[in-house]
Amino acid sequence: MGAFEDIPGRLALLGAGRMGTAMLAGWLAAGLDPEKIVVLDPSPSARARELIARHGIAHNPPPRLSDMALLVVAVKPQMMDEALKPLAGAGGGGSLVISIAAGITLGSFADVFGADVPVIRAMPNTPAAIGKGITALVGNGRVTDAQRGIAHTLLAPLGEVVEVENEALMDAVTATSGSGPAYVFLLAECLAAAGEAQGLPPELAAKLARATVAGAGALLEQAAESPAALRAAVTSPGGTTEAALRTLMADDGLCDLMTRAVAAATRRSRELAGA
Q: What DSSP assignment string belongs to the chain?
């Protein structure tokens, strides 16, 4: 949807940490004109500093949102109030605001920029750093179809983009996909530790676990079958996998743990939003 040419003016990136830098690198690699970009961050990441210097990107000019076609907010939720202070009351002029901050609602941005400003709330995840993420987004009633297309274009370099109709679902999105990579990394940790407990040398256990999780993820991405079908295909009756799955699929097993974990993350997202 859309193209960089559809952006009618300059783009301000507020926050150049891990995710902001991933977006900046993705935009440049996809062909966004560096002259259209302004980076607002007193302490950008080393990678962002390198991109800013190499491409001659404007860095920390006086922040005037009214001069920008859109503002992409990529600061941590706990830093949001301080980061937005210089921009308070600077809305209007049709500027589009896109936020990737967990738990910060559309209404929070209306309080800062005014109710007439179009705002899109998005939630990417860390595989976006290698273009393998997924981002869910939702917009307020001021967002046009063209602006939604621009948001898709800007988020596409990070990976897949999906939309939700109800902002209330964004807390569950955050808990499922936003926090989800950490759950997978923990799985790799636990798998390595379990192998080590059965006598494997630590380095070999870690290598086997990492390759297994990464390979299974790649297969899951490419396969047409559902996760359940892929699981069944590697589970021989009476075999070792079935023996392990009896434990993992018990009533208090992995599914129960994951349900409770996602529920806890959802509650925390709502708390961050002040709900």
A: ---GGG--SEEEEE--SHHHHHHHHHHHHTT--GGGEEEE-SS--HHHHHHHHHHT-EES----GGGEEEEEE-S-GGGHHHHHGGGTT---TT-EEEE--TT--HHHHHHHH-TTS-EEEEE--GGGGGT-EEEEEEE-TT--HHHHHHHHHHHGGGEEEEE-S-GGGHHHHIIIIISHHHHHHHHHHHHHHHHHHTT--HHHHHHHHHHHHHHHHHHHHH-SS-HHHHHHHT--TTSHHHHHHHHHTSTTSHHHHHHHHHHHHHHHHHHHTT-
pLDDT in tens, the chain (275 residues): 456 777 778 899 999 998 999 999 999 998 999 999 999 999 999 999 999 999 999 998 876 666 778 899 999 877 887 877 777 655 555 689 999 988 889 998 888 888 888 999 999 999 998 999 999 999 999 999 999 999 999 999 999 999 999 999 999 999 999 999 999 999 999 999 999 999 999 999 999 999 999 999 999 999 999 999 999 999 999 999 999 999 999 999 999 999 999 999 999 988 877 75
**What architecture is domain 4-170?**
3-Layer(aba) Sandwich (3.40)
Domain 180-272 has CATH 1.10.3730.10: yes
Task: Flag whether the pTM goes above 0.85.
Answer: yes
**Domain limits of the chain?**
4-170, 180-272
